[in-house]
Write a structure and sequence with these properties.
Four copies of one chain form a homotetramer. The first copy, chain A, has 350 residues and is α/β, with parallel strands linked by helices. Chain A has helices spanning 13-22, 34-46, 60-71, 85-88, 93-98, 115-124, 152-164, 176-183, 187-190, 222-231, 240-250, 254-275, 296-304, 337-348, and strands at 53-57, 76-81, 102-106, 108-109, 112-113, 134-141, 169-173, 198-202, 212-216, 280-281, 289-295, 310-313, 324-330. Chain A folds into two domains: 13-254, Aspartate Aminotransferase, domain 2 (3-Layer(aba) Sandwich); 255-348, Aspartate Aminotransferase, domain 1 (Alpha-Beta Complex). At the C-D interface, helix 1, helix 3, helix 5 and helix 10 of C face helix 1, helix 3, helix 5 and helix 10 of D.
Amino acid sequence: MEFASDNAGPAHPKVLEALIAANTGYAGGYGADSVTEAVQARIRDIFEAPEAAVYLVGTGTAANSLILATLANPWDTVFCTSMAHINEDECNAPEFFTGGTKLTLVKDADARMDPEALRAAIAAEESRGVHGPQRGPVSITQVTERGTVYSLDHIRAITGVARDFGLKTHLDGARFANALVALGCTPAEMTWKAGIDAVSFGGTKNGCLGVEACIFFEPAKAWEFELRRKRGAHLFSKHRYLAAQMQAYLRDDLWLDNARAANTAAARLAAGFAAHPQVTLAHPAEANIVFARFPRHLHAKMQRAGAHYYVWDGDPFSGDPEEQLMGRFVCDWSADPAETDRFLELLAQG
Amino acid sequence: MEFASDNAGPAHPKVLEALIAANTGYAGGYGADSVTEAVQARIRDIFEAPEAAVYLVGTGTAANSLILATLANPWDTVFCTSMAHINEDECNAPEFFTGGTKLTLVKDADARMDPEALRAAIAAEESRGVHGPQRGPVSITQVTERGTVYSLDHIRAITGVARDFGLKTHLDGARFANALVALGCTPAEMTWKAGIDAVSFGGTKNGCLGVEACIFFEPAKAWEFELRRKRGAHLFSKHRYLAAQMQAYLRDDLWLDNARAANTAAARLAAGFAAHPQVTLAHPAEANIVFARFPRHLHAKMQRAGAHYYVWDGDPFSGDPEEQLMGRFVCDWSADPAETDRFLELLAQG
Amino acid sequence: MEFASDNAGPAHPKVLEALIAANTGYAGGYGADSVTEAVQARIRDIFEAPEAAVYLVGTGTAANSLILATLANPWDTVFCTSMAHINEDECNAPEFFTGGTKLTLVKDADARMDPEALRAAIAAEESRGVHGPQRGPVSITQVTERGTVYSLDHIRAITGVARDFGLKTHLDGARFANALVALGCTPAEMTWKAGIDAVSFGGTKNGCLGVEACIFFEPAKAWEFELRRKRGAHLFSKHRYLAAQMQAYLRDDLWLDNARAANTAAARLAAGFAAHPQVTLAHPAEANIVFARFPRHLHAKMQRAGAHYYVWDGDPFSGDPEEQLMGRFVCDWSADPAETDRFLELLAQG
Amino acid sequence: MEFASDNAGPAHPKVLEALIAANTGYAGGYGADSVTEAVQARIRDIFEAPEAAVYLVGTGTAANSLILATLANPWDTVFCTSMAHINEDECNAPEFFTGGTKLTLVKDADARMDPEALRAAIAAEESRGVHGPQRGPVSITQVTERGTVYSLDHIRAITGVARDFGLKTHLDGARFANALVALGCTPAEMTWKAGIDAVSFGGTKNGCLGVEACIFFEPAKAWEFELRRKRGAHLFSKHRYLAAQMQAYLRDDLWLDNARAANTAAARLAAGFAAHPQVTLAHPAEANIVFARFPRHLHAKMQRAGAHYYVWDGDPFSGDPEEQLMGRFVCDWSADPAETDRFLELLAQG
C-alpha cells in the first residue's frame, strides 16, 4: 500500500539491464559516446523534431532550472502557478540558475493555469520601463502538481497567450508519459505542435534511476545550454549510464507501458474513493496522482494498516476524528493492483 | 590501449550488482532510505570520524562546488594552483555556486601547491579592508592534476599555513583512493589528521557510474550544505541508486583494489616510458596518471596503432617529426596489462 | 501642479549648502572622514540606538537590497506585500543582491500587510524540509506604496508574528520622515521599540540629492554589510558628499519640516478630492501620497491645464469620458500651496 | 602635502555651482530630464560617436562591473592584469555583477598589459569545449594602476589581439582625462579609433563628487545595460544631480584643465624624486601618479612633517632605517604647487 511518491518506487528491470549492456569497455566521456548519440536521435524521432537540441541531466530540478535559465534573463519574471514544482519544491533552484529571475504566480483551476489570468498577469508587467521585472517565459506542468492533465486545447490557449507577447513556453514534463497516455496523443502534438518551446522530459518517476531529458525545439541556444549544464555541475562524465537508462526507457514502448500501469492503478484508486461515502476527490484524477479528502479517523485506520501517503491539508496526528484531511496518493509503474484493492477494501470497511 | 581518461572506463560489475540489489520495492526518496544511511555510516567508519556530515552527489564538479560554496563567502578568494580542476575544468562552476568567489592561483611544483607561496598569497590579501577580496579556503587536489601525490607532511604544511590564518582546507579527492594506496596510509591520516576540513571523495573515476561523497569533518554547516545541494539541483530523488554504488565501492576493499590496479598499470607504463631513449616523464608518476614527452613521429605511430590518450602540449597533427609533444596517459581500474605491454612494445620498436 | 513623484522635486537649498561646506580641502575616502562619522553618530542619537550600525548609500533600491541580502539566505523567501517596492519596482534587485531569494506575497489592506495573513504565509513555508524555500525576513514599507501609514500597534503586530518564528523585520523607510510626522512618534518608537531590526532610512525623496541610510539595530552583521556594499559597488569614494547631505537633512529638524510640508500639501489635496462630487479617494491619504478615482473627462481637463501625475488604473488616453481612472498624486517638501489650490479650483469647475 | 588619493581631494567649485543651477523646480526622474539628455549628447560629441549609448552611475566600480557584465557571459573569463582595479580593489564586484565570470591575469610591464602575453592567454582558453571558461572581453586601465599610460599603438595592439579572437575590449578610464592630456590625442583616438568597445569614463577622481559615464560605442546592448543598472540599484532617481556634475565637468574644458593640473603636479614631484640621490622612481610617472622607492628614515621624516601618502611595499612602521619602501603619490586637480615644493625641500634636506 505504497502511495507516497513515484520516486519511492523501484527502477524497471529493463533499465538496469541496459546499464549492464552499456558497461562494456571504454567509451568517450561527457556525452561523446554512441549510446548518448543514439538516445538523442531516438528522442528527436519520437518528437518528430529532427532539429531539436536534446540533453540529459540527472534530476528534474536540474532540467527545469537549466531550461528556465536558458529561456529567461535575470531581470525577467517567469509565469507559473502557485503550486508549480518550480515555485514550491525546488528550494529556489530556478532563482539560483537564472541569476535571480522572479516567479509571477498565475491563477489556476485544479492546478491548470488559467489562460486569461495569464494574459492579465503578462499585461500587468513591463509597463514601468526598467522598474518592474521584464516579461519572461511561461512554465506549465503536465501532469500538473494536482494530478490533472492539460488538454491540447488548453496548452494551445496558454502558448497562444505567451506568443501574443513574444514569450516562450516551457513544459515541466516530470510525468510526461503519464499525461501522454492520458491524452492519447503524440509527443509532438502535446509539445511543439501545441506551441511548446522546451520540455523537461522525465524518466526518473516512471521507471528510471535518475535521468531527465531537456529538449529545445529551436536549437539556437543549444551551446549556451551546454555551458550552463557544465557550469551547473550537471554534465556527467560517464555519460553513457544516463543515456542507457533513457534508451531502455524509450525502447519497445516501455515508457508508455509504465505510464499506463501507473495511471490504471490511480484510476482504480480514484474509483474506489469516489464510491466511498466518506471520501471525496479533491481534484479530478486524470493521470497517476489522486487527491482525496476523508475524515481523520479513516486516515488513522489506514496508517495503522501500513498505508503510505502524504497528508497535504490538516494535521494527521491530532484533532476531531471527523475533521477532513486531504491526502495525496501517487501510483508508479510498479503499483500492485492487489495492494490497491487491499487498501480500498480496508477503507470500505470504514 | 586506452589511456584517455579514467572516466572513459567502465563501472565495476559489483557496482552494477549493487544497483540490482537495491532495486527492491519502495524506499524513501531524497536520501531517506536504508542504503543511504548505511553508506553514510560506512564512510564515517572508514574516516574514523563519527561526527562527520556525509552527502552524496552525482558529479565531482558538484562535490567541489558545493563544498567550496559552503566554506567560502562570495567576497572571498579561494587559494588553489593554476592547474586545479576547479580553476581549469569546471566552466566557472565554483564561481557560480559560491556566488562570485575569486580563485587566487598559488605557485606549485609538479602540481603540488608550495606552502610558502601559499603563505605569501594569503598574506597579500585582505590588507586593503573591504577593497580586496577576503581570505577564503584553500583547495588542493590529491592525486594532483599532474599525477603526483602530496605526502602527509606536505598536506600538513599546507593546512598549517591555512590554519595560521584561520582558514579551512578542502581536498579535491576525485582520485582519493589512488592517492591513498600510493601513500599507504589511512583515510583519516590523509585528511582530518593532517588538517583537512572537507573532502570531495571520488567514486566515479574508480569504478562507479557517477557518485561522489562530500565529507565535512566539522558538521556545523551540514544543514546549509543540504539546502545548497537541493538548490543546486543535486539532490537525487531515487537516492538509493547513488548510495548503492558507493556501498559496493566501499565493500570488501573494492575501492582500494581498483585503485591499486590502476596505479600498477600506470607504474608499468611509466617504467616503460623511462626505459625508452626518446621518452621522458614530464612529472613524477605517483598514482594512475602519467605525463610523458616524446617526439611527434612516435605519437603518429601510436595513433596509427589505435592508442587513445590526450596530447596536452604541442600540435599532435602537424610539425617537425622530432618536435616534443606532451601526452597525458590515465589508467583506470580496468586497465589490461596486455594492452599496456602491447603499447610499450610498439613504442620500443621506435 | 507637480504631483508626479517626490523624486521629481528639487533638493533643499540647505542640503546644497552643506555640500559646499564639506568641500574644503582633503578628506579621507570611503567613509573615513569626519562628516561621515558625525552623521553616523547623529543617526544613532536620533534613534536612541548607540550600538546601531549605520551606513550610507546612494539609492533606495541599494538600501533595501543590501539590507535584505544581509538578513536573508539565498534559499529563503522574504515576506512582503504584492505592491511592495522591492517586489514591483526594483527590477529584481533584491533577487540579485540576495543571490536568488524568493519573495512571498502576503495579503494587505490598503497596502498594509495583514498580520494574520503573514502568520499563515510563514506557517505555510518550511514544512517540506529542503524542498521549499526557507523562511526569511519580513519586509514592510512605511509610508506604504499606497500612501497609508502603519500604526505602531500594527508594526508591533507584524514584528510579533515574525519573532514568533524567529524571523527579522526590515522597514523600507523611503518616506520614513513622512510617516514619523504623521504618527507623531519618535524614530525609536517606530522602529526598534516596535520590533524592527533594520531600516532603509530615506533622504532622497524628502529634500536630498541622493542618499539613504541603512540602519541595523543589532550590529552583528555590520562587517558583512560593508563587504556587500563594496561588492555591490555602492561604497562611494568621496563619501563626504553623501554624508554632508544627510547631515544637513538631520540638522535643525529639516527632515521633519520637509515631511510636514509634504504631508500638509497632500492633506490639502485629499480634502479637495473628498469634497469633489466626482472624485473619491482610493486609499486613506495619511502622509504625502494621495490615490484618487475620477472620470476620464476630468483627467483630460487637468492634463490640458498642465497638471503632472501618474494614472495607475485605466487608460488615460482613450475611452468613455465617464469611465473611472485612478491617479497617484505625490507631494514633496517643495509643494506650492498656491499650485495645489489652483489644481483644486480647476477640478472644482468640473 | 596630500598625496594619498585623488578621491581624497575636493570637488571643483564649478561642479557644485552646476548642482545649484540644476536645482530648479521639478524635473523628470531616472534620467528623463534635460540635463541628462544634454550631457549624453555632449559625450557623444566629445567622442565623435553619434550612435554611442551613454549612461551615468555613481561609482567607478559600478561603471566597470556593469560594463563587464554586459560584455561577458557568466561562463567567460575576462583578461586583465594582476594589478587591475577590477581584480584587486573591487571586492569581487565584477564576479558579482557578471554572475561568476573569472578573471585571467595577463603579464604586464609597468602595469601595461603585454599584447603577446594576451594572445597566449586567450589562445590557452576555450580549447577544452565546455570544460574550461570561455573567452570573454579584455579589460585595460588607462591611466594604469601604476601611473603609466598606454600609447595609442599599445592600445591598438591590445585591441588587435582581442579582435583576432572576436573579443571586445573595455577601457577602465577612471583617470581618462589624465591619460588624454598626457597623450595629447582626442577621446575618439584613445578609444573607438583604437579599437575600444566600451569605456568607464571617470569624473569622480578629477573634480566631481561622484559620477562616472559608461559608454558603449556599439549600442546593441543598451537596453540590457539599462536593466542591469536598475537591477544593480545604480539608477539614480534624482538623476539630474549626477548629470549636472558631468555637464560642468565637460564644459569649457574643465576636465582637461583639471587633469593637466594634476599631471603637472605629479611631474614636478617625479622630477624632484629623480633628482634626489636616495629616491628612485619605481615606474615611469606619466600622468598623475608617482611610485617611488626611498629608505625608511626618509619616510619617517616625511610622516613627521605631515605628508600623506600610502606605502605599498615594506613595513612603514618598523625595520632597518635604510631599507627601501615603495610609496604611491597621487596628485589631484587641486594639488598646491607650494605644498609639493615644501615636500621636495624637506625631502632634499635628507
